[in-house]
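Researcher: Batch entry, complex prediction.
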Amino acid sequence: MTAPDDAPISVREIGSFHVGGGLVTLSGLAPRELVSVPGGPVHHADPNGEIAAGQMYVQFVALAQPRGRVPVLMWHGGGGSGVNWETTPDGREGWQMRFLRAGVDVYLCDSVERGRATWAPYPYVYTSEPFFRTAREAWEVTFRFGPAGSWDPDPARRVAHPGQRFPVDTVDQFMKQTMPRWATNDQAAQAAYQALIARVGPCVLVAHSQGGHFALDTALAAPDQIRAVVLLDASGAPDPSLADAALLRDVPHLFVWGDFLDRHPFWVGTVPPVRRWYEALRDAGVDADWLDLPARGIHGNSHALMMDDNSWEIAELVLDWLRAHELIASGPAG
Amino acid sequence: MTAPDDAPISVREIGSFHVGGGLVTLSGLAPRELVSVPGGPVHHADPNGEIAAGQMYVQFVALAQPRGRVPVLMWHGGGGSGVNWETTPDGREGWQMRFLRAGVDVYLCDSVERGRATWAPYPYVYTSEPFFRTAREAWEVTFRFGPAGSWDPDPARRVAHPGQRFPVDTVDQFMKQTMPRWATNDQAAQAAYQALIARVGPCVLVAHSQGGHFALDTALAAPDQIRAVVLLDASGAPDPSLADAALLRDVPHLFVWGDFLDRHPFWVGTVPPVRRWYEALRDAGVDADWLDLPARGIHGNSHALMMDDNSWEIAELVLDWLRAHELIASGPAG
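Model: Structure tokens for the complex:
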């Protein structure tokens, strides 16, 4: 049983740390001038020297009496951050709070280059320019809020998919969560995710979108530490011809999918490679489940499954799956 | 009495939101190509369209039975973020957790352009390039870890001020918290801070460094909402010839200062304007205190007062001052 929605939770500690990365040295850059505060003194700024790069930010809430056997690590997607698991754009409790209420210690993170991980300058450290997701891209391409051509800067003229469960009236709030991203930092991000596992130890991964590929690769790299992997609309997966699914024989996997996948070319191209990895896992005897929400009668979910108007219901499906795999203790709340 | 250090705290909700800003439109930019995940499909990215800009990120912990009369909002300094109030670089509980243990609801924020607020592209939205603080700048100039010329990339060759209270062995961890910053976003940041006050209502501000100037300006803009302002090494203040200190007659102020201020030219230039504002407040009859820690016999504090090895002691001084001003209820924990 999950505690009633308004019951307090008993928290041992809230905290954070950075993991991975280290100092790198910038050199050969021209000096600059900076005024720190309006009207304040001019500060001669030498951009050369050591800065930090390659680290990830991790934020944890440790319960006084967790019922989870291990903590749950929630990994965001591309252009996202740990914020995606906090309060939803329309102000409801996010998955962080829902999982805490279910008795599970939750670790959120901002991967390398995102949010509180901070980022490093380009082209000196990062080798390319960042991408900034536009609202049109989110709406029409990645997040499946509406069909191609249906975004409009004027809220009154936007057209969402019929039955859309994302709270589209708050898409501006959603866009405020959107992080610039680079296409050239995947190795640094993967290294930081693995450094996180080395620090936290045994855990469950719950990963969204691009975070799914990082989670699947991390499970392959540390199968003895990962107790389960839950993937929300994973946007990538290992290639079965290059990776050995049998390494994951003791790691249950749950692939969760929203709606409208066949109406968006990005997803038409993205789902099959993930399906191939799922099938390789099954062939290798891994306990892997493919939860197609529309096939289960749950229609209208966007790519933002943890923010949609039935986000608590989907959280509960995942929590039930974790309970069924004995990763959350049953019985009365501790 | 603060609860024992290891006692759980009873939490009603942990959550977050963005405040301020909105969608802006980018146009005239050349198309780009993006591969979202290694080996994944090529994604044609049109950089033109609406993105969010000008927002601030806010994270709150609401206690089940707060003893604080109003929440405390902790505002970071330049190059900082809400992380600065979380776990210290050497792994001790930060001021967020210390204030929660004292019974106060705490709101952290990442100001415009920092951390989870996300940032907007330059030169299209922001009009200048960002600055990246180097470890040498932090060590020798702003954070007063050691004298000029004492930073060295080799940890064994770094020289800190004698009696330095910052945990200098973890300066790499500290640098991982450091955010790029712009010198041209102060107006947007001020607007977002004021939008935050409009949303949260009556509150206490605890502000560090550059955040101090924003806090002092915010108190002037909303003196009926700000119950007290606590400033840790404020790096700027209103000009008494331009601002009316008498507006703050009902807003007590506490200015807290660390050590080594006279050994760093940046601080030799920075303290006097803040002192002038303090004196203007006193002249206007405001309840304002100037807490020079070395004069109180507390030596060795860096600019990172909330991370130094006596950070809990300084937190307790601030909490005592808030209790003395009846902003935290006395008596047994609720």
